[in-house]
Amino acid sequence: MTEEIKLSVLVSLFTWIQRSRPSAKKRSKFRKFLDTFCKPSDYFSAMRLILPSLDRERGTYGLKESVLAICLIDALGLSRDSADALRLVNWRKGGANTGANAGNFALVAAEILQRRQGTVSGGLTIKELNELLDRLASAESRAEKTAIFATLINKTNAQEMKWVIMIILKDLKLGITEKSIFQEFHPDAEDLFNVTCDLKLVCEKLRDPTQRHKRQDIEVGKAVRPQLALRVRDPAAAWKKLHGKEVVVECKFDGDRIQIHKNGTDIHYYSRCILDGEMLVWDSTLNQFAEFGSNQEIAKAAKDGLDSDRQLCYVAFDILYVGDTSVIHQSLKERHEILQKVVKPLKGRLEILVPNGGLNANRPPGEPCWSCIAHSVNDVERFFKETIENRDEGIVIKDLNSKWEPSDRSGKWLKLKPDYIRAGSDLDVLIIGGYYGSGRRGGEVAQFLVGLADRPDPNAYPRRFISFCRVGTGLTDDDLETVAKKLKPYFRKYEYPKKMQPSFYQVTNHSKERPDVWIESPEKSIILSITSDIRTIRSEVFAAPYSLRFPRIDRVRYDKPWHECLDVQSFVELVHSSNGT
Ligand code: ATP
């Protein structure tokens, strides 16, 4: 008990948990590990490795599989074009080389490490591992990261290194939920985590599972996991779900969910409060909220003092804490009243969303409101229609008598977005490339790069196709498989490090766009009908000037020949006409 816990012990635990069935057995392995190997002072060191995605103490590593592959290749001293290096870089791909492990980066890496690391444990302790991971998170250059990987490889065997990689990728695939881990750790652990998002605090405060923790509510300065909205299909489903309740419908603003924890300064009447809301961009020349997706740019421009017409604007739609009291147990109706009392809006900077007040007060007469009480399903339908006409993202429908609950998606809040109802027209596009999937679909093409035709001369077939978007959802697994199978004979690999593509295709240099395989020529390909959210976005990734937001495959057009693909010019006209410009 006095010794430092070795990584090898944790690795045995992971292996046991992964293999054991049912879930109760997995949980008892975890309990046994805590009781046998950990002192209370070790809890956090261990828990942050068991639940790496919840650890907020360490910064991000900035290491997705592609960069991780290069670090490992260099740390192992492999030549970048050696067979093993290529297998790591092309970890998603199947074929004779990567076999059953394709699509699982850690397994592909373990296979390569196996031949170089031996099986004897490297003796690393979890304390040392955490120190190395801290250094990895703060390392600024790839060379520094590579050096840390070299140290890690020196002090582990291939099994241990495999789990270290999974910890870095923050996905252990243990087949046990974070809820079960928390429950086994302490009966109050999940609650406390939900209102603090602080794993360290949970491990320090809840050392004895027989001692119940005093019910902990939210605190200023500690992030709380947000109340979430449940997706519904249409207004009738929403109305049925909230049958008999007092209901408010609100615009679903398309920005970033942000909690404001205020302690001091004077925009508000109260010195301490927690607001829940959405950060948006306000265009003061147009006097309206700006397009989705510009927040980061605006924040940057505002910081650099560049953009004077656009500014960040916070829309508070809820309040969680006032003065020295949490108000999440009060009803939404009461919280709206508090919000109005506590926050003084500042046009275009800080707005509040409450029915019959707040933001609504700025709406010119006759314009739809941002938030209103719904008395019938017709009210919800009308509000939803106005939202679509207004090109907003959708609506949120809330039970006015509900309390605010961290991490809850049980249906106190419902969301309805036009893309679930099918808006916009179907677009017939041509498959020009494919991307390999991961996990279950590892080694198989699971997504497509689709293109639009460059408008041909009259009576001629198109000769060039312009990359347009990446799409994978919408079809059943079987249908997707059939398409991939039909195209398989025409797939041509986009080999690393060569970057050639067939000359029929126009693409950008953006790395997100590059498919794993190309279709060798357009006349071999298949047309897909795709739909999307009503909005298009200006594209930086693809060669076409616009791309789609949340595209989905509606059906496969085996009946339509390749040359009947929509052309870019018609698509741009469609975008402009539907934007009214
Ligand atoms: P989505 O991708 O649909 O925005 P999500 O998974 O981020 O969903 P959900 O809880 O499902 O989050 O949907 C609610 C989200 O909608 C909130 O996280 C918030 O960012 C956003 N939102 C915009 N306007 C409102 C509003 N008036 N009330 C509540 N949430 C709103």
Automatic annotation (TrEMBL):
Ligase recorded as keyword: yes
Major localisation: nucleus
One function term, GO molecular function aspect: ligase activity
Occurrences of domain ATP-dependent DNA ligase family profile (ranges): 305-454
This protein's UniProt keywords: ATP-binding, DNA damage, DNA recombination, DNA repair, Ligase, Magnesium, Metal-binding, Nucleotide-binding, Nucleus, Repeat
Keyword Metal-binding: yes
Compartmental location: Nucleus
Cofactor: Mg(2+)
Protein family according to the UniProt entry: Belongs to the ATP-dependent DNA ligase family.
Name of the protein: DNA ligase IV
Residues of the full protein shown: 1 to 581 of 1158
